[in-house]
Amino acid sequence: xxxSIYKYYGxxxxxxxxxxxxxxxxxxxxxxxxxxxxxxxxxxxxxxPYSGTFSAVVAMYETSGDPAILELLQIRILPGLEEYFDEAxxxxxxxxxxxxxxxxxxxxxxxxxxxxxFADLYTLTDDxxxxxxxxxxxxxxxxxRTSIWTEEFTGANSGKSLxxxxxxxxxxxxx
Length: 175
Prior knowledge:
The protein is of the alpha+beta class. The protein has helices spanning 2-9, 47-64, 67-82, 108-125, 128-136, 141-145, and strands at residues 10-11, 14-17, 85-86, 93-94, 147-153, 156-161. The termini are far apart.
Protein backbone atom coordinates (compact mmCIF):
# COMPACT_ATOMS: atom_id res chain seq x y z
CA UNK A 1 0.00 0.00 0.00
CA UNK A 2 0.95 3.65 -0.21
CA UNK A 3 1.43 3.72 3.56
CA SER A 4 4.23 1.15 3.23
CA ILE A 5 5.84 3.02 0.36
CA TYR A 6 5.95 6.22 2.36
CA LYS A 7 7.04 4.37 5.51
CA TYR A 8 10.09 2.85 3.82
CA TYR A 9 10.86 5.31 1.02
CA GLY A 10 9.42 8.57 2.35
CA UNK A 11 11.51 11.55 3.30
CA UNK A 12 10.58 13.80 6.23
CA UNK A 13 9.23 17.26 5.42
CA UNK A 14 8.85 16.61 1.70
CA UNK A 15 6.47 14.65 -0.55
CA UNK A 16 9.47 13.18 -2.37
CA UNK A 17 10.53 9.55 -2.11
CA UNK A 18 13.96 8.02 -1.78
CA UNK A 19 15.44 5.89 -4.55
CA UNK A 20 16.48 2.94 -2.40
CA UNK A 21 15.67 1.17 0.85
CA UNK A 22 17.52 1.43 3.04
CA UNK A 23 18.36 4.91 1.84
CA UNK A 24 21.64 5.14 -0.09
CA UNK A 25 22.52 8.75 -0.91
CA UNK A 26 25.56 7.62 -2.92
CA UNK A 27 23.37 5.90 -5.53
CA UNK A 28 23.34 7.42 -9.01
CA UNK A 29 21.87 6.16 -12.25
CA UNK A 30 24.47 5.26 -14.86
CA UNK A 31 22.10 5.66 -17.80
CA UNK A 32 22.11 9.46 -17.74
CA UNK A 33 23.72 11.35 -20.61
CA UNK A 34 25.59 13.96 -18.66
CA UNK A 35 28.60 12.76 -16.67
CA UNK A 36 28.14 15.46 -14.04
CA UNK A 37 24.82 13.84 -13.13
CA UNK A 38 26.71 10.76 -11.95
CA UNK A 39 28.43 12.61 -9.13
CA UNK A 40 27.02 13.98 -5.94
CA UNK A 41 24.46 12.71 -3.55
CA UNK A 42 20.99 11.90 -4.72
CA UNK A 43 18.75 12.15 -1.72
CA UNK A 44 15.53 11.53 -3.64
CA UNK A 45 14.36 9.16 -6.33
CA UNK A 46 14.75 9.85 -10.00
CA UNK A 47 11.61 10.75 -11.95
CA UNK A 48 10.97 7.29 -13.37
CA PRO A 49 10.23 5.54 -10.04
CA TYR A 50 8.43 8.59 -8.66
CA SER A 51 6.21 8.81 -11.73
CA GLY A 52 5.42 5.12 -11.24
CA THR A 53 3.93 6.11 -7.90
CA PHE A 54 1.80 8.69 -9.73
CA SER A 55 0.64 6.00 -12.19
CA ALA A 56 -0.17 3.57 -9.38
CA VAL A 57 -2.26 6.10 -7.47
CA VAL A 58 -4.18 7.10 -10.62
CA ALA A 59 -4.88 3.39 -11.25
CA MET A 60 -5.97 2.93 -7.62
CA TYR A 61 -8.35 5.85 -7.95
CA GLU A 62 -9.69 4.51 -11.25
CA THR A 63 -10.51 1.12 -9.74
CA SER A 64 -11.89 2.34 -6.41
CA GLY A 65 -13.19 5.87 -6.89
CA ASP A 66 -12.15 6.41 -3.28
CA PRO A 67 -11.95 10.17 -2.53
CA ALA A 68 -9.16 9.48 -0.01
CA ILE A 69 -6.95 8.25 -2.86
CA LEU A 70 -7.63 11.41 -4.87
CA GLU A 71 -6.76 13.43 -1.76
CA LEU A 72 -3.46 11.52 -1.39
CA LEU A 73 -2.74 12.31 -5.01
CA GLN A 74 -3.45 16.01 -4.58
CA ILE A 75 -1.71 16.47 -1.22
CA ARG A 76 1.33 14.23 -1.59
CA ILE A 77 1.96 12.79 -5.05
CA LEU A 78 1.39 15.82 -7.31
CA PRO A 79 3.39 18.26 -5.15
CA GLY A 80 6.29 15.80 -5.31
CA LEU A 81 5.92 15.42 -9.07
CA GLU A 82 6.15 19.19 -9.45
CA GLU A 83 9.64 19.06 -7.95
CA TYR A 84 10.74 17.47 -11.26
CA PHE A 85 8.94 19.95 -13.55
CA ASP A 86 11.45 21.95 -15.61
CA GLU A 87 10.12 25.20 -17.03
CA ALA A 88 13.59 26.64 -17.66
CA UNK A 89 13.98 24.70 -20.91
CA UNK A 90 11.70 24.42 -23.94
CA UNK A 91 9.43 22.62 -24.05
CA UNK A 92 8.57 22.64 -20.36
CA UNK A 93 8.68 19.01 -19.24
CA UNK A 94 9.59 16.70 -16.40
CA UNK A 95 13.30 16.28 -15.71
CA UNK A 96 14.90 13.01 -14.64
CA UNK A 97 15.84 14.53 -11.28
CA UNK A 98 14.45 17.34 -9.12
CA UNK A 99 14.93 20.77 -10.66
CA UNK A 100 16.43 22.30 -7.52
CA UNK A 101 19.57 20.26 -8.32
CA UNK A 102 21.92 20.62 -11.33
CA UNK A 103 20.28 20.31 -14.74
CA UNK A 104 19.29 16.71 -15.48
CA UNK A 105 18.26 14.79 -18.59
CA UNK A 106 14.65 14.83 -19.75
CA UNK A 107 13.27 11.78 -21.51
CA UNK A 108 10.32 11.66 -23.89
CA UNK A 109 9.08 8.32 -22.63
CA UNK A 110 8.92 9.52 -19.00
CA UNK A 111 6.99 12.60 -20.07
CA UNK A 112 4.59 10.74 -22.32
CA UNK A 113 3.67 8.30 -19.52
CA UNK A 114 3.06 11.23 -17.17
CA UNK A 115 0.93 12.87 -19.85
CA UNK A 116 -1.15 9.70 -20.20
CA UNK A 117 -1.68 9.61 -16.43
CA PHE A 118 -2.83 13.25 -16.44
CA ALA A 119 -5.21 12.47 -19.33
CA ASP A 120 -6.57 9.48 -17.39
CA LEU A 121 -6.97 11.63 -14.30
CA TYR A 122 -8.88 14.24 -16.30
CA THR A 123 -11.15 11.51 -17.71
CA LEU A 124 -11.84 10.23 -14.20
CA THR A 125 -12.47 13.59 -12.55
CA ASP A 126 -13.50 16.04 -15.30
CA ASP A 127 -11.17 18.46 -13.51
CA UNK A 128 -9.63 20.70 -16.16
CA UNK A 129 -6.49 21.36 -14.11
CA UNK A 130 -5.32 17.87 -15.08
CA UNK A 131 -6.05 18.40 -18.76
CA UNK A 132 -4.25 21.75 -18.70
CA UNK A 133 -1.28 20.21 -16.93
CA UNK A 134 -1.10 17.42 -19.47
CA UNK A 135 -1.17 19.87 -22.36
CA UNK A 136 0.94 22.64 -20.85
CA UNK A 137 3.63 20.45 -19.40
CA UNK A 138 4.83 19.21 -22.74
CA UNK A 139 4.04 15.72 -21.56
CA UNK A 140 2.37 14.88 -24.84
CA UNK A 141 1.76 17.81 -27.14
CA UNK A 142 4.97 19.73 -26.44
CA UNK A 143 7.06 16.60 -26.66
CA UNK A 144 5.56 15.41 -29.92
CA ARG A 145 5.58 18.79 -31.66
CA THR A 146 9.31 19.29 -30.98
CA SER A 147 10.51 15.80 -31.79
CA ILE A 148 11.61 13.82 -34.77
CA TRP A 149 11.43 10.06 -35.01
CA THR A 150 14.32 8.01 -36.36
CA GLU A 151 15.51 4.44 -36.54
CA GLU A 152 18.85 5.42 -35.02
CA PHE A 153 19.08 3.08 -32.02
CA THR A 154 19.01 -0.54 -33.23
CA GLY A 155 15.64 -0.14 -34.88
CA ALA A 156 13.95 1.46 -31.88
CA ASN A 157 12.13 4.76 -32.21
CA SER A 158 14.12 7.59 -30.67
CA GLY A 159 12.39 10.94 -30.17
CA LYS A 160 14.97 13.69 -30.00
CA SER A 161 14.59 17.43 -29.68
CA LEU A 162 14.95 19.43 -32.87
CA UNK A 163 17.11 21.93 -31.00
CA UNK A 164 20.15 19.94 -29.87
CA UNK A 165 19.95 16.16 -30.17
CA UNK A 166 22.24 14.33 -27.77
CA UNK A 167 22.47 10.53 -28.01
CA UNK A 168 22.27 8.67 -24.73
CA UNK A 169 22.08 5.16 -23.43
CA UNK A 170 18.34 5.68 -23.00
CA UNK A 171 16.28 5.23 -26.12
CA UNK A 172 14.38 8.49 -25.93
CA UNK A 173 15.98 11.78 -24.92
CA UNK A 174 14.99 15.42 -24.67
CA UNK A 175 17.73 18.02 -24.02
